[in-house]
Structures are given as structure tokens and as C-alpha cells.
Amino acid sequence: MTLLSLRGIRKSFGAVDVLHGVDLSVAAGEVVGLVGDNGAGKSTLMKTITGIYRADSGSIEFDGKDILALDPGQRRQLGIEMIYQDLSLAKQQDVASNIFLGREPTKRLFGLFPGFVDKGEMDRQAAKMIERLGAHLPSINRSVGSFSGGQQQTVAIARALTFNPKLVIMDEPTAALAVREVQSVLDLIRRLKSEGIAVILISHRLNDVLSVTDRIVVLRHGRADADLVTARTNMNEVVSRIVGGGDIAAAAAHEQRG
Amino acid sequence: MAPEMAQPGFWARVQRASVERLHIRLESLVVLLALSTVMALLSPYFLSLSNFLNILLATSTIGVLAIAATFVIGSGGLDLSLGSVMGLAGVAGAFVAVNLGWPSVLAVLACILAGALAGYINGQLVTRAFVPAFIVTLGMLGLARGLALVISQGRAIYGLPPEIVYIGQGRTFGIPMPVIIFVLTAIVAHAVLAYTRFGRHTLALGDSEGAARAAGIRVEHHRRIIYTLSGALAGLAGLLFTARVNAGDPTAGINYELTAITAAIIGGTNLFGGRASILGTMIGALIMGVLQNGLTLLAVQSYYQQMAIGAVLILAVFIDQYQVRKESRV
Fold first, then answer.
1. Which fold has domain B48-323?
2. Can you give the residue ranges of every domain in chain B?
3. What beta strand segments (E) does A36-162 contain?
């Protein structure tokens, strides 16, 4: 079942055309890798999906509804969630505070004063979220900044899950991680998929993209230049579609080294 | 010695627990106790109930300002205008009561509103005009002080009505009114900062504005509320001071922002926002109070007290930054 369907998305900033009619579809529970060189339009495309940018023309359907006119808040309510590369975490606050930031469960103090945060409830739910992801954190009461990059990624994903998303867009989630941490983040992506949540993975790390995705879409010069089934493609083909001919062998060799 | 003391990391665990559960840095409590012990040994007058109330009374004005500083700095902002706004508020209240002859209730309201208005202007300028908080509140430091001098024509306004004087000099159950007002304000402020959504959003904002924005918190709106609140608290401090000295003094509160910010930083407020607690700030304010009281009892000139406060501020930030760097290395 198609969850997200983009057709002919165009977007320009002044005289600069960034997207020249992009077609993209994502099925429910599907993991799609979005790759492309710097400046290919990946970020712009994602921001037109989350609603931060309004596409100049084209159509965006999500879950059978036309969402082109909706703002980011409304799209989030429909189930589109984005995790940015900087993770947008408040580093000095603890796990539960980050997961529930802006939506803290409240109770009345002494049954009188409203607006007090129900920290016990928050901690319980946060612990449940982390467990659901099959992840381990040193302590739920510690400030997030004391965690490793992968553990912080876990907190960011757990927060995204509290919105009950149908689609999670992840921007370079493995870019700054140690090798062992990369595996745990890839496991988290597989966990999302197993729960029926679709994932769009933006990454320069093609090894990660090849290991975790179902399909790979190559963005080139503002167009979806290739739509490859991961099981039937390989590093060389992906790289050659990204650079679009030229010295493919050298580029592929470089990627494999990296 | 208790056997736990021998366990590795005991101190570290107690430190962490005190930060997580009580929202205070244990070091500041140790400093307060050590300082008090030294003062008690040096001066026979230090350890008495009346001197204790004296310290609290002297701390009440600074303490209320320090609460304001804690909210603003915790949210990643800065308010250098606290002392001047306090002076302006006191003059405004005295002007309303004496020159206009309006009822005392309105004079009290005038203090708070004058402070809140100055804070509101700070907030508007910081969030809408994109002038850095440092500059906006430094400018307000000059503006508010000048306005206080203009309104009072450079002279203190005497002859306050007895109701207002009671707020500063009266006692209830033997406790000075400023102390009661200060302690109640601190309790409410602690509850708000530590346990309400508003308080958590304040710290999240100071921690990472981007994260707060991404979480749907109305960042600019929140900042405006914080600056207005800060101004209103400075207004309350102005009321307490004016009522205590029985005069609307346009030079009241000069350099008080220095002491207030120092108290907040000693109490464990992160200079760059994201971490703050009123309980910690109260300990910080008491450290400043004990320091000033003790130096006065020891007949040290007030010029040296000023130097001591400045030195303590720099030392407190140094220790805090040292700890942060140590923690980030682990």
C-alpha cells in the first residue's frame, strides 16, 4: 500500500531551480534510502514533505490524503516525523524531559494547582519507549549530553515514536557515529520497519543505505534519477547513478575505501 | 566514618542524586556551611537568632533579584538591568503614594507594574528587534536609572504611608515581613521552575533553542514572559527595599545585579542556560548574605565587600566551567 506519493514536485528559490519535478513513493513499512550528491536537492525535498517548504507545483499524497496545503504541524499530526542530523535534543535535560518536551503529562499539585509535570508518569513512559526500541541507556535520569551519539539517536527516535508516526524521515543518522553505534542505529531502523513504520533514510554512507533499505532513490540535479531495488543493486551501480557517468570505477573504489 | 565513604564514587553519586532530586549543587551547600562556621568562630555575634534573621532580612532584596536572574539566565538570557529596574520601581511606588497621594495598594501595584513594564520592553527588544540581551538590558540599566532620577528629581521621596512601611519594617510572628515575602516568593518560584511545564520549557529553551522550537514551544513568546517576570520580580525587590528604608531612593539597587547574578551562578545556574534551580540560588544568595554580614560584623570596610563579591563571581564561574570540562572529558 502506498503511504506517501509525490508527483512532479517542483521547487525553486528565486532564480534557482532546486527540484525539477520529483516523483517518489514510499509504501507503508518500507525503508527507502535517499541518496545524491551535495546540492542534489535532498534536504529541499524532505522539507517539502514535512511542510517547511511549500512545493511550487506537483502533488503530495499521504495516507490517501492530499497534504500539499497543510502546514508542518498538521502533517506531523497525520504521522510524518523528521529527525534532523543535530537531533534537536536539550543536552542538559534527562531522557524523559527530551522525549516529552512540549507535551509533558501534567497533574494537579495537592489536587489544586494545575500545570505540574507528572515526572513519575513521564519516566515510566520514557522507559517503556526505550524498551520498545530494544535499546539500553545507562540511566533514564541522566542528562542526554552525557550519552554517546548512538544513545542520543535512540532518544531522538523514541521521541519521534511518541507521535505515533507512519513515516519517519532521518537525516544522516549515522554520519557522526562510531562503527558499533552505527549497527545499533541500523537495528533501530529495522525495528521501526518491523512495527510497520516507513522510513526515509538520507545518508552519504552508502554501506549503511545498502544494508538497511528496501529501495534506493537517487536524486540528481533535482530529479529522481534512479529508483533501485536494494536487493538487486550494488555499490557500483548506486555510485554511478549518483555521479552520473564519468569516472565511475574511481568513485566506487573511493566509496568502498571510505 | 561511615563505611560507604570508602566506596569509590560515593561523593560523585551523592552529588548526582542531589542535582537530580533536590536540584542543588552540593558544593554550594558545603561552601555555605564552611563560611558560616568560619564566621561563627571569628565573631561571637554571628550565631544568634536575631543575626540569622538579620542575614535573611539583608538577603531578601538580593534574593528576589537572584530569583529573577535564575529564570533569565536559566533560559539562556541575561538581565543586567535588575538593579536599575528595582530602583525605578521603588521610586515609581513612592511617587504614586507620596506625590500623587493615591492609596497604598496602588503604590504597591505601581512598583510591580513599573518593573514588569521595563522587563516587557526588554523582552520585546530581545525577541523582535534582535538586539542581544546583553546590550538591551545594559541599555535598560541606564534608561531605568535615568528615569528613576528624572521622576524623583534626583532626590529620595520620603513620607511613605504606614501600610507600605509595614511591608518593609513590620513583623509577623516575630519574622520581618520582607523575609516572609522573600521566602514565599522563593517557594513558589522553585515549584514553578522545577515542577511545572513552564519551568521545564524555560530550561529546555536555555539548553537548546532549536530543540525547544522543534518541540513546538513558542520560543519568543516564552522569552518575553521570562523578561517580563524578571522585571516584575525586580519591581517586588524595589518595593521591599523602598518599604524597608522608608524612602523611594533613585540610587537604590546600584550594583545589585552583580550580587544577584553571582548568587544565581554560585547556586549552580549554568551561565549559558539549561541548568538552574531556585533552591540552589537561595543557597547562593545566603552565601552572599553571610559573606556581607560576616564582613560587616568583622568591621571590614564595605569597599572590600564589593571586591569580595566580584571575586566570588569570577571564582564561581571558573569552578563551574572547570566541572563542565571535566565531565565532558569522561
1. ABC transporter involved in vitamin B12 uptake, BtuC (1.10.3470)
2. 48-323
3. 57-62, 65-66, 80-83, 106-109, 113-117
- What's the domain range around A219? 2-257
Instruction: For cell 527540484, name the residue.
Output: A19
Q: Which residues of A touch B210 (CB under 8 A)?
A: 86, 88
pLDDT for B267-296, tens place per residue? Answer: 989 889 999 999 999 999 999 999 888 888
Taking the C-alpha atoms of residue A98 and residue A90, their distance in angstroms, rounded to an integer, is 6
Please give the span between the terminal C-alpha atoms of chain B, in angstroms, as a whole number. Answer: 29
Q: Could you tell me which residues come within 8 angstroms of residue A211 by beta carbon, excluding any fewer than 6 positions away?
A: A186
In terms of Cβ atoms closer than 10 Å to its own Cβ (0-12, 13-18, 19+), residue A140 is middle
Q: What is the largest CA-CA distance in chain B?
A: 68
B215 and A102 in contact by Cβ < 8 A?
yes
Interface of B with A in 208-247 (CB under 8 A): 208, 210-212, 214-217
Instruction: Give me the interface pTM, i.e. the ipTM.
Output: 0.80
Binary contact (A92, B20; C-beta < 8 A):
no
Overall number of domains in chain A:
1
Q: Which three cell numbers stand for residue B45?
A: 555575634
With CB atoms and an 8 Å threshold, state whether B200 touches A109. no
Q: For residue A68, give the CATH number of its domain.
A: 3.40.50.300
Chain B residues touching residue A141 (CB < 8 angstroms): 20
Judged by a CB distance cut-off of 8 A, whether residue B196 touches chain A is yes
Q: Does B204 contact chain A (CB < 8 Å)? A: yes
**pTM exceeds cut of 0.80:** yes
State how far the Cα of B298 lies from the Cα of B40, in Å rounded to an integer.
Answer: 11
Q: What is the pLDDT of residues A35-86, one digit of tens each?
A: 998 888 888 999 999 988 889 999 999 999 999 888 888 898 899 999 988 8
Cβ–Cβ gap B197/A93 under 8 Å: no
Comparing alpha-carbon positions, the chain B residue that sits nearest to A156 is B211
Q: Is the dihedral of CA A115, A119, A122, A124 positive or negative?
A: negative
Q: How far is B248 from chain A (nearest CA, A)?
A: 36
A93 close contact with B: CB closer than 8 A: yes
User: Which H, E and C letters describe A223-246, residue by residue?
Assistant: EEEEEEEHHHCCHHHHHHHHHCCC
Contact criterion met (CB < 8 Å) for A86 and B210:
yes
**Spatial distance between the Cα atoms of A224 and A48, rounded to a whole number of angstroms:** 15
Q: Is B273 left (phi over 0), alpha (psi -120 to 50) or beta?
A: left
| B324 near A CB under 8 A | no
In the block, residue with C-alpha cell 545518508? A203
